[in-house]
């Protein structure tokens, strides 16, 4: 990123003090993120986060920032009502000099800024079972605080993000078109998907019949989107709100299990290492249900195992679709990388199917 463009962005936000340090920050792959440090006379230093939003992924950055501003403002009110600290327990958007929540630079790129959350850390990997539990409580608490928020008023920042039914149709077309001539080599994987059309349609059909509620969901419930307090070890704030939009609580729960309770990396080639760890599943289920504080319906809680299976299946299907289409969406770092990723997810789905009764009984234990 050109220094002049960053300086242009910095000059257009309401930052206090003198800039003394600026550096790239974090491990995210989508937005360009910088940590800025400002010196304020007599008061020491303050830190802020500056981000350039990725317009390739998020086509409507103005709508995205409208979502974030509305949700964080609502969270601030709930946190204050509960006697919490709104400076640390939700993201705080810093306005531009013109009072907007975003700045458009001279090259047409969109920028935003947040107050930095001090004395807290986000972890890329589960280093302890308690970290995983804390992330579950935090994401559950996020759901609890936003339970009364009218989800349908939010914009969809990525259209059809977890519409597994629609993604199944895209998959079938990718098989039919076979633009790279790869379908012949992955007949087993294609069969795996086609045999589970009911799973692809499951949640969409329940939504059609209005048997489950639309919620404000995070849609990227990985551990590294939780800030954990350095002193207490407790999860204090949910971050990365770009994919906050209308969705299903089961999807948020399920994506956490898919990523956090797997015994192997997302692209592990030795499938004998891949399984769904029932101890981690148990820990997360306990924390998430506790965090939700009674705001979910009984049906939503009963469907949590299905959320885990459906999200894992959807992710595997997306990897396979991308492989068939020529690896155009997910970045690959070796030949057949998306195929390896898809096989890992499908092994997890199979493992969940063998442990289905256990997964259901764990949920009932905490209901």
TrEMBL record:
Pfam families given in the database record: APH
Alphabetized InterPro entries for the sequence: Aminoglycoside_PTrfase, Kinase-like_dom_sf, Pseudomonas-type_ThrB
Record lineage: Bacteria, Bacillati, Bacillota, Clostridia, Lachnospirales
Record protein name field: Aminoglycoside phosphotransferase family protein
Residues of the Aminoglycoside phosphotransferase domain: 23-266
Superkingdom as given in the UniProt entry: Bacteria
